[in-house]
């Protein structure tokens, strides 16, 4: 697609839009885009407006910051209050409300919190600040987890004794299984995440078609990729079949990235994890293996964490399960806005509520 001219892109987009309309005619369909990057691309490019009204796109649990539960934030906040601790984190995490504070508020009150763009940067902070316990807030899916694992391996090799990871890494396929097993999130097809799939390959999604008879298409992030993936889903639905297809084969190999998977399983083991909105999902998290436990913040730095409370009226849990569109939350655009977020879905650039707020003009009224 990168080699297509503008004219060719327009022609292809017109073709997919026309065919989608024909294939969807006479039925109401709900497709879930699992990845937050898809959500943003869909809004930015106006794909929602291009699709017929009877094809509804709902967002799933694919924004890493959004699915991180309050309990994790409360723990990070408690750590940030310790004078010998430095917190290193991606910027998105700063404004996410915990039960009674945010990392941004703690930073304003003097906590040592540094924004980093990768786990390796956190490692540098540890090397330069031997008097501090440097904790990296490891949030994300299969895409970011390998770099955190690599940072742990590097810390081990270089004998860094003040680098720790507070792991909230999560695995996407078990969350999709939990969504479907709950029986509440009715979805006719999945747009599967390109970046995650580039690491894990296609096999972990086999259960979608085999056990639930739901079509899935791994999709790229350009608007034309997404339109083509929607078209591919609709062709399957029209033919009453369910397969796993790969629209993004230029980046996603069928077998994924074996070296990244090797690093992941060397450092992490699958464990149960709590997701905002979805609760505890078996084998959906990654905890640090015994061999590398010296780098596990929770096991090495004692902490007392406040009792977790959820913001009243925040409906992030439902938004993350595709049960509610953001504009149907009573707080959307009123008490809850990007400059004053009540829930995590309004904080992250990949959050559904933030995307609706920023790009949703014409589809909602405040
Ligand atoms: S609009 Fe705000 S309060 Fe409502 S679900 Fe979204 S983030 Fe939560």
Label the overall shape: globular
Radius of gyration: 21 Å
- List the strand order in the largest sheet: 2-1-7-8-9
Stretches with pLDDT under 50, minimum 5 residues: 361-366
The CA-CA distance between the termini, in Å, is: 38 Å
Task: Provide the structure class.
Answer: alpha/beta
H and E string? HEHHEHHEHEHEHEHEHHEHEHEEHHH
Average the pLDDT over all residues and give the rounded result. 93
Which percent range fits the helix content? 25-40%
Q: What is the count of β-strands?
A: 11
Bound molecules: iron/sulfur cluster
Protein architecture, described:
With 366 residues, the protein is of the alpha/beta class. The chain has helices spanning 6-24, 36-45, 47-50, 64-67, 70-80, 103-108, 119-128, 145-157, 172-182, 194-200, 206-212, 223-238, 258-267, 297-300, 316-320, 352-359; strands at 29-33, 55-59, 85-89, 113-115, 133-140, 163-169, 189-193, 216-219, 244-246, 268-275, 279-288. α8 links the parallel β5 (133-140) and β6 (163-169). Residues 361-366 have low confidence and may be disordered.
């Amino acid at each position: 697609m990168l080699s297509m001219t503008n004219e060719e892109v327009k022609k292809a987009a017109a073709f997919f839009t026309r065919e989608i309309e024909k294939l969807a005619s006479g039925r109401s369909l709900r497709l879930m885009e699992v990845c937050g990057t898809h959500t943003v691309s869909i809004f930015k490019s106006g794909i929602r407006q291009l699709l017929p009204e009877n094809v509804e796109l709902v967002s799933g649990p694919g924004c890493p910051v959004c699915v991180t539960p309050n309990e994790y934030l409360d723990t990070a906040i408690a750590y940030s209050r310790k004078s010998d601790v430095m917190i290193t984190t991606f910027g998105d995490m700063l404004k996410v409300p915990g039960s009674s504070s945010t990392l941004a508020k703690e930073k304003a009150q003097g906590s040592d919190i540094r924004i980093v763009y990768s786990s390796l940067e956190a490692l540098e902070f540890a090397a330069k600040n031997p008097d501090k316990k440097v904790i990296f807030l490891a949030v994300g899916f299969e895409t970011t987890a390998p770099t955190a694992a690599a940072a742990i391996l590097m810390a081990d090799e270089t004998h860094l004794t003040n680098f720790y990871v507070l792991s909230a890494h999560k695995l996407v396929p078990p969350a999709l299984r939990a969504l479907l097993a709950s029986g509440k999130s009715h979805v006719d097809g999945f747009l599967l995440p390109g970046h995650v799939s580039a690491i894990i390959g296609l096999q972990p999604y086999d259960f979608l078609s085999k056990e639930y008879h739901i079509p899935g298409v791994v999709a790229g992030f350009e608007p034309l990729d997404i339109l083509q993936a929607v078209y591919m889903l609709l062709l399957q639905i029209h033919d009453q079949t369910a397969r796993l297809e790969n629209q993004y084969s230029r980046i996603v190999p069928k077998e994924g990235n074996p070296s990244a998977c090797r690093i992941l399983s060397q450092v992490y083991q699958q464990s149960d994890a709590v997701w905002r909105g979805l609760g505890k999902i078996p084998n959906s998290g990654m905890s640090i293996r015994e061999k590398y436990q010296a780098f596990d913040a929770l096991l090495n730095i004692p902490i007392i964490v406040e009792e977790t409370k959820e913001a009243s009226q925040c409906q992030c849990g439902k938004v993350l399960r595709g049960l509610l569109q953001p504009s149907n939350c009573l707080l959307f655009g009123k008490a809850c806005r990007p400059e004053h977020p009540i829930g995590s879905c309004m904080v992250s650039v990949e959050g559904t509520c933030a995307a609706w707020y920023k790009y949703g003009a014409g589809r909602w009224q405040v």
